[in-house]
Write a structure and sequence with these properties.
Radius of gyration: 26 Å
Number of helices: 23
Oligomer: single chain
Shape: globular
Structural class: alpha/beta
Number of domains: 3
Largest sheet: 12 strands, mixed
Number of strands: 16
CATH topology of the largest domain: Aminopeptidase
CATH architecture of the largest domain: 3-Layer(aba) Sandwich
CATH class of the largest domain: Alpha Beta
Length: 740
């Protein structure tokens, strides 16, 4: 009797062979394309939206911040699932610094008395909102402090906001500042306040940004209600992420640790997040200049800046404990290349219940792992080793992933082919960022995966959304003419950071969203109840994420020749170089205009001449930087990439890709690392991508040069041009060695 499975497989292979004739998959010999498409089809059939929904419900059932009982329970549950599905899984435990609050007090002492509630109430519509074990509302890695001072409103607390305060003659030195969440990563707000001499920082969520100005608030809608508070870390990750006490070293039990007060990524002033219910009395009591129009929020009164009679008392202190951090690491050994690793990750810890952030992404990743386990039962094995990682401690500062990477540094430099990350996931549009040599690879996948709401591929749906949202007809036309997926550059804020920016492992960060309200972020209301009603009611986008990331994993694990296209990297670097030259020209023109205004005692267009501005001092002239070393290096890189592409194409055409050549391809990104790292933050070693020193999550491309220009450090800018040129020359010479 003929085996039914073999008959089914034969029919599927015939079907996919006909498709494969017209469908190209980068990195595969033509004879193997149909087999890969058949495998991906089987993978998709094993994915279940109902199962994803059940996983979200189980993992978000209890508050599970790092080191909590439920955090360990979830790690052990995830471990049991991997083992059940046929993976070789274990928990790797690190020991990291994690502060939890002992004292939280905020009160207005004059001109009236008000004591902040600092609490989110339970709601009958939300089954988990009243549970015990919830972390209270606080900012992890705030300094201990007990301060009383006049209050100053600083808008979003960005460097540009302090420039406006300076023009208005307002000094925050010795004051407590209050800033709105948004426009930057939260840790930038106290960092900049501290640099300007403030002794404390309060951060509140304004209803203009994620409250009733956006739509109905929870529980009627999903936007932030008046009591909702955004927890979050304020560790200064622009220096380094991970455990503050073990920079550059895995935080094992016996690791050498520095003193906490010596850690450069920890703040020196107290910080506290509050709701707009608690912010309103403080802001309404402020006197001083009326805030600029663009500073006004959604609260129903005129915003003033202060300082004046309004004084507040802020007191916070913490338990500074070393706690266990549970990373679940699961592997399937590759049949042909066991020492080449395809790594996939999503964190499992949350600030409270975290149904959206991170459980929605974790559930999709686990569904991928389940489906891959089902493929194993058919006798299939990947060519390369697949490693799935459920990280702990992401929320306080990328703790679990960073410590694992630092502890496995030597092994990763040899074996890590790619790292593919996800985080929170919901209904909407594809988000993709990563190493630019992977653009064609992700473009092919994005054009294959179908969006469940529109039945077009996720690339076309994303493009349509961008076109509809464009600000002009010309912009719309430009978007419609785009034929290929463009990966965004990687900043920080999720677990890919240590892979690409410290180790030079090619990386991707994937997810869906944009159609869901975000008012539950880092609050007790990020719950299964809210997710089921407002985020992804049918859990369809969990399946779409699993398909997108899963296909990337399968293709990378089975590729005959690893699908890197360095011509896209070359084009991107060339664009960055041109942007820097334009930035210099803009700096020169802006400086000339500002100096003209200052010298004439006038005002810039749009400024109110009735206001008493403090005119800044004349800025130094912008010199001409010599970009020729960088431009010459880019020309050399282009030539080397052209030569390498010929070799890559011939290997595919002639079916002769070698293991040694593939290893050279995935190690190419390491050539872009700077041995001494970026100025003043040596942990970040990638010459092309880093989180901005004053943006936090937001990326700065060619950061050494770009930030030196932005800070008007012309000597350093010229030095960094040389540094980046050397990195590109090193990469070009590396490519030349592969094509000689």
């Amino acid at each position: 009797m003929i085996n039914k499975y073999l008959v089914t497989l034969f029919v599927i292979l015939i079907f996919h062979t006909s498709i494969a004739r017209s469908q190209k998959i980068s990195g595969f010999y033509e004879k193997n394309i149909a087999k890969e498409l058949s495998l991906e089809s089987s993978f998709d059939k094993n994915l279940s939206k109902e199962n994803i929904g059940e996983t979200i419900k189980v993992l978000s059932a209890k508050p599970h911040h790092i080191s909590s009982p439920a955090d360990k329970e979830n790690a052990e549950y995830i471990l049991s699932l991997f083992n059940k599905w046929g993976w070789d899984a274990k928990i790797e435990t690190f020991y990291v610094l994690f502060p939890s609050p002992k004292i939280r007090l905020l009160e207005m002492t004059s001109p009236a008395s008000y004591k902040a509630l600092l609490k989110e109430p339970a709601l009958r519509e939300d089954a988990t909102s009243g549970q015990t074990g919830q972390l209270p509302t606080y900012n992890a890695f705030s300094a201990d402090g007990d301060v009383t001072a006049e209050l100053v409103f600083v808008n979003y607390g960005l460097p540009s906001d302090y420039e406006m305060l300076n023009k208005l003659g307002v000094d925050v030195k010795g004051k407590i500042v209050i800033a709105k969440y948004g426009r930057s990563w939260r840790g930038i707000k106290p960092k900049v306040a501290q640099e300007h001499g403030a002794i404390g920082c309060i951060i509140y969520s304004d209803p203009m940004d994620d409250g009733y100005f956006q739509g109905d608030v929870y529980p009627k809608g999903a936007f932030r209600n008046e009591y909702g508070v955004q927890r979050g870390s304020v560790m200064d990750m622009s220096y380094y992420p991970g455990d503050p006490l073990t920079p550059g070293t895995g935080a094992t039990k016996d690791a050498k640790r520095i003193e906490r007060l010596q850690a450069p990524n920890l703040l020196k002033i107290p910080v506290l997040p509050i709701s707009y219910h608690d912010a309103a009395p403080l802001l309404e009591a402020l006197e001083g200049p009326v805030a600029p129009l663009e500073w006004h929020g959604g609260l129903p009164f005129a915003f003033h800046i202060g300082p004046g009679k309004t004084k507040v008392h802020l007191s916070v202190s913490f338990n500074w404990d070393i706690v266990p951090c549970y990373d679940v690491i699961a592997k399937i050994q590759g049949a042909e290349f066991p020492d080449e690793w395809i790594i996939r990750g999503n964190h499992h810890d949350a600030w409270v219940n975290g149904a959206g952030d991170p459980v929605s992404g974790q559930a999709a990743m686990l569904e991928e792992a389940k489906s891959i386990g089902s493929l194993l039962k058919t006798g299939w094995k990947p060519s390369r080793t697949i490693v799935y990682c459920a990280w702990d401690g992401e929320e306080p500062g990328l703790l679990g992933s960073t410590e694992w990477v630092e502890d496995h540094e030597r092994e990763l430099k040899e074996k890590a082919v790619v790292y593919i990350n996800s985080d929170a996931n919901s209904r909407g549009f594809l988000f993709a960022e990563g190493s630019h040599a992977l653009e064609p690879f992700m473009d092919e996948i994005a054009k294959q995966v179908i969006d469940p709401e529109t039945n077009v591929n996720v690339f076309e749906r994303r493009k349509a959304h961008e076109a509809i949202s464009a600000s002009s007809e010309e912009a719309k036309k430009t978007i419609w003419e785009v034929k290929e997926l463009k990966l965004e550059a990687m900043g920080s804020g999720s677990d890919y950071s240590s892979f690409i920016q410290h180790e030079g492992v090619p990386s991707l960060n994937l997810g869906f969203g944009g159609e869901d309200p975000s008012g539950d972020y880092h609050s007790i209301y990020d719950s299964y109840s809210l997710f089921l009603k407002f985020k992804d009611p049918g859990f369809q986008y969990g399946v779409v994420l699993a398909e997108t990331a899963g296909h990337a994993i399968l293709r990378m694990s089975n590729a005959d020749e690893l699908p890197f296209d360095f011509s896209h990297l070359f084009k991107t670097v060339d664009e960055y170089s041109k942007e820097l030259i334009t930035l210099m020209q803009t700096s020169r023109e802006t400086t000339d205009l500002e100096n003209l205004i200052i010298s004439s005692g006038g005002y810039a267009e749009g400024e109110d001449p009735t206001k008493k501005y403090i005119l800044p001092s004349v800025k130094s002239e912008v010199p001409y930087l010599d970009f020729s070393p960088l431009q010459n290096a880019i020309i050399g890189l282009g030539t080397s990439v052209d030569r390498l592409n010929i070799v890559i194409q011939n290997n595919i055409k002639e079916n002769k890709a070698s293991a040694a050549f593939n290893q050279s391809l995935y190690r190419a990104e390491q050539q872009l690392l700077i041995e001494t790292g970026l100025p003043r933050r040596s942990w970040y070693k990638h010459s092309l991508y880093a989180p901005g020193f004053y943006t936090g999550y937001g990326v700065k491309t060619m950061p050494g040069i770009r930030e030196a220009i932005e800070q008007r450090n012309w000597k350093e800018a010229q030095e960094q041009i040389e540094v980046d040129a050397k990195a590109l020359i090193k990469l070009a010479e590396y490519f030349n060695s592969l094509s000689s």
